[in-house]
Specification:
By secondary structure, this protein is of the alpha+beta class. The protein has 3 domains: 2-54, Structural Genomics Hypothetical 15.5 Kd Protein In mrcA-pckA Intergenic Region, Chain A; 63-125 and 215-233, Pseudouridine synthase I, catalytic domain, N-terminal subdomain (Alpha-Beta Plaits, 2-Layer Sandwich), CATH 3.30.70.580; 129-209, Alpha-Beta Plaits (2-Layer Sandwich), CATH 3.30.70.1560. Helices cover 20% and strands 32% of the residues. The chain has helices at residues 4-10, 16-24, 115-122, 142-150, 189-196, 227-233; strands at residues 2-3, 28-30, 33-34, 41-42, 48-50, 53-54, 63-68, 96-97, 106-112, 130-137, 152-154, 157-159, 161-170, 175-182, 200-209, 212-213, 222-224. The strands form 4 sheets. Strands 7, 8, 9, 10, 13, 14, 15, 16 and 17 form a 9-stranded mixed beta sheet that branches. The chain has a 4-stranded antiparallel beta sheet with strand order 3-2-5-6. A two-stranded antiparallel sheet has the order 1-4.
Length: 236
């Protein structure tokens, strides 16, 4: 037997976290009985239904790397009818993004229907670094650099800044381009780091996720991950 949320995630229906929400909301049943307890277990041959629809447990696992354009939602659907990252990928499988990028943030985002893979990448214990290129309004000086080196406190919690590098200081337009690598994934975290330092982020792009980069992908383009890349995330 396996935990119910894991079976749902492994089916590609959604992430394990989302599956837990569905269970606590009473939307999941096993063999006709509604299950609300997160510790509940089931067999893969049990009849599992979500909102009355039988769960398909025989799915092809898919993994994609997308160069997310600006003004695209990092979600499966949007109640306002806006374009989502899922809309940009041609697949018949029910995929979803691993984590999220803000509506106006561009760059590297991963999508999959493999719940275990998504959970592995998002779990804090795995310390997967993410690198962003930020265009900042203003010129970053030595004092700001020193603060970045010492770590910045956002909402009472210190952010572990793995690395950063000034890419360009545009004295005419009074802007700075800086590459910054962090581990955690709090919402708006990069923007909030610079807000705490007194700067506004004008433009933000995620360039790297772990060892992955955008390569030659143009905005809106995507590619499948290779078996070698998937295994590398597990240390194989």
């Amino acid at each position: 037997m396996e935990r119910l949320q894991k079976i749902i995630a492994n089916s590609g229906y959604c992430s394990r976290r989302k599956a837990e929400e569905l269970i606590t909301q009473g939307k999941v049943s096993v063999n006709g009985n509604v299950v609300r307890e997160l510790g509940s277990k089931a067999n893969y041959d049990d009849v599992i239904e979500i909102d009355g629809v039988m769960l398909n447990k025989e799915v092809k696992k898919e993994y994609f790397l997308l160069n997310k354009p600006r003004n695209v939602i990092s979600s499966v659907s949007d109640e306002k009818g806006r374009t989502t990252v899922v809309d940009l990928i041609d697949t018949n499988e029910r995929i979803y993004p691993i984590g999220r990028l803000d509506y106006d943030t561009t760059g590297l985002i991963l999508l999959t229907n493999d719940g275990d893979f998504a959970n592995h990448l998002m779990h804090p214990k795995n310390n997967i670094p993410k690198t962003y290129l930020a265009k900042i309004e203003g010129i970053i000086d030595k004092e700001t650099i020193d603060k970045l080196k010492n770590g910045v406190v956002v909402d009472g919690k210190k952010v572990n800044i793995v690395d950063f590098k000034i890419k360009k200081r545009d004295l005419d337009k009074i802007t700075t381009y800086i590459s910054i690598t962090i581990i955690e994934g709090r919402n708006h975290i990069v923007k909030n780091i610079f807000h705490e330092l007194g700067f506004e982020v004008i433009k933000l792009t995620r360039t790297n996720y772990g060892f992955l980069d955008l390569g030659n992908l143009k905005s809106g383009e995507y590619r499948p991950l290779t078996i070698k890349e998937i295994k590398k995330f597990y240390g194989n």
